[in-house]
User: Fold this.
Amino acid sequence: MIIQTINLTKRYGKLVALSGLHLNIEEGECFGYIGPNGAGKTTTIRILATLLQPTWGEAKVCGHTVGYESRIIRPLIGYVPDFFGAYEDMVVQEYLEFFAAAYNIQGDQRKRVVGDVLELTDLAYKRDALVDGLSRGMKQRLSVARVLLHDPKVLFLDEPASGLDPRARIEMRELLKELRRMGKTIIISSHILHELAELCTTVGIIERGELLFHGSLEDIVRRTRTGTSVEVKVGSYQERAIPVLQGLEQVEAVEPNDGRLLVSLKQETHDFAFLARAILNAKLPLQEIKEEQVNLETAFMRFTKGIIQ
Assistant:
């Protein structure tokens, strides 16, 4: 087990930032950590990165205990925070060489390592650019380049796509996929859930310091799908369609959802052709009908609303 927490708790006076967190992350996993702002994601990552002491409980990274063996852990990890501290009057090459020297990488090896991470992060053409003049997307990639200099086993990334434009987010996602192919263990927190679904092997949902779910994407979809739900689009005729659908014996509930009606069917009902017939018989326009696709965003909303126990 490369990451393990046992009853990990962090309190600030009466405020509980983390409450009895149990996590187990295997080597080579890409773990997506999701939750609302203030849920405890950054607190967890900072404890695992040896930057914060827990109030009680235990956290282990690569078999070493945070707090007691932090000096052993630090060379094994790379931490990318959700902000970038700009270095005025320093160019990209100098910035990376400075941190390489801090990791005691010297001489020709330093030049080679810096060149390699510049190529990997697609920043080689910016080696002579001022760090302070880079776009936010390039600064985020430079942050990743910095933590790769010493070839860590584990990467902690706190909201790496925050504030990036669509192109920069795609570039960051592709970079993380490449790091995953290289065998790195990645723990990433993010609000961009559909990108986590493409990238991660396992996810954890946290709210108010408590872990609500930890498992594979397949598990979370299975847990979330409690029955058949169907999306029905009838344009501006929603108010007329709702009582028509609610009156059907096989229908459990009907509620508006983003310009559509979300129709929950009773547990034993799987064929929903009768919904289309009912709409057409009521002389209402049927624009679209399809089974609701349960994805990470749907699961997140249902877990954090307390719908899934």
